[in-house]
């Protein structure tokens, strides 16, 4: 019998097309709960999941034949990695292919926040535009400002590269300092976390969600940011406290915030929805035709390689059976 693959959600059809020629593929078209996944996963050898799928220890314990979980995302905080590793299950993600699209969204949010674009659009649609006025919706200049990056991986670097057009000073903070040649290539400088907070005009988050980064940005951190600064998050919503962010948008020091991810997604704190200086997107970071297809292709290739006895292209960790 051919190995069995479960695709958990609606994704670009290229993944199904590539897998069905070699494997028995079941393509689920609606969101599965943890209970449903645990009840259905037993016969499958590979799982193509999304960030919305809770691949918990309980789910993995019901999958004696499972050899690969290919997550349709760069993030993987929806998967119990310790349990997967213990069971010798490869876990993969989709780095690189969504880097440029996500950096574009970060910059779309920066521009929308700085120039108050959603407020202008709402003014038009509500019939409130009565002609040009010198004091109407004055925003912030970007030329020569300081861009701070919390996380300087692939997407952080791509975001920094786009800042050169605005002649920006670029600061970054992460666990380890980059090599001097890398810093020179991007015109970036490593700083402490406190310096990042105090000197950034725009602070953009590009870090994974870990126990160390959970709620890394709360009222304590927001209070240390510059007056009229901009806060951007296109990585993981739980890196910041939404309630504390609302307070910083109401009382300062923030000029605006641009979010593509949320702490308890898809639920969003009501106070954010009411803030005119909060630019909110429905998790669009990788949402281009090309990028979403390439993510599906990479997931399918990782599954194909594992089920044929090879090491996947983008594993989260190594396991003894596939080194």
What this model shows, in words?
With 323 residues, this protein is an alpha/beta fold. 34% of the residues lie in helices and 15% in strands. Strands 8-7-6-9-10-11-12 form a seven-stranded parallel beta sheet, with helices on both faces. Strands 2-1-3-4-5 form a five-stranded parallel beta sheet. Helix 1 runs parallel beside helix 13 and helix 5 packs across helix 7.
List the helices and strands and how they pair.
Layout: E1 4-7, H1 14-20, E2 24-27, H2 34-40, E3 46-49, H3 57-61, E4 68-71, H4 81-86, E5 90-92, H5 99-114, H6 117-125, E6 146-150, H7 154-163, E7 169-173, H8 180-186, E8 188-190, H9 193-199, E9 202-205, H10 219-222, E10 229-233, H11 242-251, E11 254-259, H12 270-273, E12 278-280, H13 289-307
Parallel strand pairs: 1-2, 1-3, 3-4, 4-5, 6-7, 6-9, 7-8, 9-10, 10-11, 11-12
Helix pairs in contact: 1-13, 5-7
- Give the class from helix and strand content and strand pairing: alpha/beta
H and E order: EHEHEHEHEHHEHEHEHEHEHEHEH
Assembly level: single chain
The strands making up the biggest β-sheet line up spatially as 8-7-6-9-10-11-12
The largest pleated sheet is described as: 7 strands, parallel
Q: Give the uncertain stretches in residue-range form.
A: none
Write down the overall geometry.
globular
End-to-end distance, in Å?
26 Å
The share of residues in extended strands comes to 15-25%
Count of alpha and pi helical runs: 13
């Amino acid at each position: 019998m051919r190995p069995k693959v479960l695709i958990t959600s609606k994704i670009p059809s290229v993944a199904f097309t590539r897998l069905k020629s070699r494997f028995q593929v079941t393509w689920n078209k609606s969101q599965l709960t943890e209970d449903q996944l645990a009840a259905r996963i037993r016969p499958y050898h590979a799982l193509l999941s999304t960030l919305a799928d809770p691949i918990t220890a309980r789910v993995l314990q019901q999958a004696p034949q499972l050899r690969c979980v290919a997550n349709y995302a760069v993030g993987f905080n929806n998967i119990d990695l310790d349990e997967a590793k213990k069971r010798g299950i490869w876990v993969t993600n989709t780095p690189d292919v969504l880097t440029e699209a996500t950096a574009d969204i970060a910059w779309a949010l920066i521009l929308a926040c700085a120039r108050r674009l959603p407020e202008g659009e709402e003014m038009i649609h509500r019939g409130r535009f009565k002609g040009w006025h010198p004091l109407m919706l004055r925003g912030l200049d970007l030329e020569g400002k300081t861009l701070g990056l919390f996380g300087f991986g692939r997407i952080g670097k791509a975001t920094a590269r786009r800042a050169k057009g605005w002649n920006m000073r670029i600061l970054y903070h992460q666990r380890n300092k980059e090599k001097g040649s890398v810093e020179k290539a991007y015109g970036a400088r490593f700083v402490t976390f406190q310096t990042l907070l105090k000197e950034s005009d725009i602070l953009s988050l590009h870090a994974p969600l870990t126990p160390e980064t959970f709620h890394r940005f709360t009222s304590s951190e927001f209070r240390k940011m510059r007056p009229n600064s901009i806060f951007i998050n296109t990585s993981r919503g739980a890196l910041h406290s939404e309630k504390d962010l609302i307070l910083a948008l109401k009382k300062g020091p923030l000029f605006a915030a641009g979010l593509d991810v949320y702490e308890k997604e898809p639920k969003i704190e009501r106070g954010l929805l009411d803030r005119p200086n909060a630019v909110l997107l429905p998790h669009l970071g990788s949402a281009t035709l090309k990028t979403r297809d390439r993510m599906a292709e990479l997931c399918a290739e990782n599954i194909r390689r594992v089920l044929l006895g090879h090491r996947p292209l983008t594993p989260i960790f190594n396991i003894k059976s596939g080194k």
